[in-house]
Amino acid sequence: MAPTTNTDGSVLTDLTSYRVYYSTSATPCPGPTFFSVASSTAAPSANQTVNFRLTGLTTDSTYNVAITALDTGGNESACSAPASAVAKTEIVVTPTATVNFGNVNIGNSTTQTFTVQSTRSGTVTGTASVSAPFSIVSGSPFTLIGTGATATVTVRFTPTSTTTASTNVNFTADGDSLSRLVTGTGVSTASTLTVSKAGAGSGTVTSSPAGISCGTTCSASLTNGTVVTLTAAAAAGSTFTGWSGAGCTGTGTCTVTISAATSVTATFMQSSFALTVSKAGAGSGTVTSVPAGISCGATCSSSFASGTAVTLTATPAAGSTFTGWSGGGCTGTGTCTVTMSVAQSVTATFTAPTFALSVTKSGNGTGTVTSAPAGISCGATCSASFTSGTTVTLTAAPAAGSTFTGWTGSCTGTGTCSLTMSAARAVTATFALPSFALTVTKAGAGTGTVTSAPAGIDCGATCSASFTSGTAVTLTAAPAAGSTFSGWSGSCTGTGTCSLTMSAARAVTATFAVNPNAFTDNPLVAGTTVTKAAHITELRSAINAARARNALAAAVWTDSTLSAGATMIKAVHILELRTALNQVYTKRSMTLPAYTDPTLAAGTTSKAAHIQELRNFVSALP
Predict the structure, then answer these.
(1) I want to staple 289 with a disulfide (CB 3.0 to 4.6 A). Which of 262, 294, 463, 539 is the partner?
(2) Domain that holds residue 214
(3) Phi (first) and psi of residue 576, to 5 degrees
């Protein structure tokens, strides 16, 4: 409230202004910090309210405020009782941390946004500003209506140089001011490639595409993404010894893809010459040099400055012997000293013990054995010496018509034979000729045997045997009593001996027939020939022979022994002959014979026809 009376109680008529004292101390008035506020009237009315907003305060700090009044004579009233409050801005801005726009190519731009929010009721108006190379794109000026209302301010970074720019974005609203730090770095679309030369020698480096000619121009600005090839050329009396930097090594060209400032060093040395050490012989060892450079072992060549005296020392490995130097003017078995005036080559020879490997071939087949490393070619050369520690692989190759059946001695199995030579070794390779099966089958109603020369087949019991490839086998057929040999089929024909040369599996069938003239009283004449016990016995033998050929058991007969002139021929004798024969026909899927008097009752007298038709039917079987 504005005052209306003087200190003496008279009406105030000459009011000119107010002083608003403020401080974070408990007694701001009187004090050095205050705002002067002009009065709108010299004689304020009762209960007149004057509003004034303090600015420039520290946000979130507590301030005490007291007020005095001044008249036209400059007289100041006593201080009012202090009031306190916390200083607040009318707006808040996020983000609060530094906003980094990052790396931006010169000529391009990028944007970031800030959010301005009102912290009080009513309407707040304000602006945002920033200095180059940043600019306000949108959102300024802004108007916020009501607590929590927001506006978005967009800031653009447009770099014009490769330096890093930093500045504040300033936000003001109704006398309040906030700032936020922004930063960004301009990036050039081109980068600098710099070549340095090092070493005691001299030379030039040139680039493709052009730009570097160092010589004189050892730096160039190139568009990012450019692939640059650098070539070093040593001057007379110098040697280019290699690159360093930018991932380049070695003495060839150096290829660099430009993406940032890049430095490459080319080193040129005064003239030096290569000293190369070679090792020869079946032994092993190392050669070292003084001064250092050669350690051969691994490093067998090194360059030494012109005029350097290099001493080489040979050290044989365990089990080896150093037998001497050659080349570079060195001989003997001592040290080798070489003075470098040109490139030099020196050979150190180391020897090692050797052991004999002997191969023997056995078996009735043929073939060759060869070795890796070379040495054995057996064939002709069946023994060779190999250096101790050598792994020798023997390979057996059978000749056409032979097979390799395996190793004996220092190896086994039928694969390759691998040996590590630590002593004399002996190996036998066995080659065999293949063998083929000869199978004999017997056919027909008769019986007999087949034998072979050379032995193997005795059929009879042994009807199959294997014979070495190329063997000439002769088969001989011998019919049994009462049978005849009717001929060969399969790998032979005719009725003589069967001669075969075994070059593949063979099968031969020998057919034996029942000799029709072997039956007694053949043929039987009806009404004339009297049936006899011999007729039945002969048929029993012939039918059982047919059953055996067809894998049927021998039949069992009534009156197994028939006596001539004593045993009477019965109907059962005829019937069981018919049954046994019918089983053979059934086994062979042949039509059953038709018999005279197919049903014979006991006591029926046998006829010549009963005997003769059985003879005919058994003789018809194969």
Answers:
(1) 294
(2) 190-270
(3) -70, -30
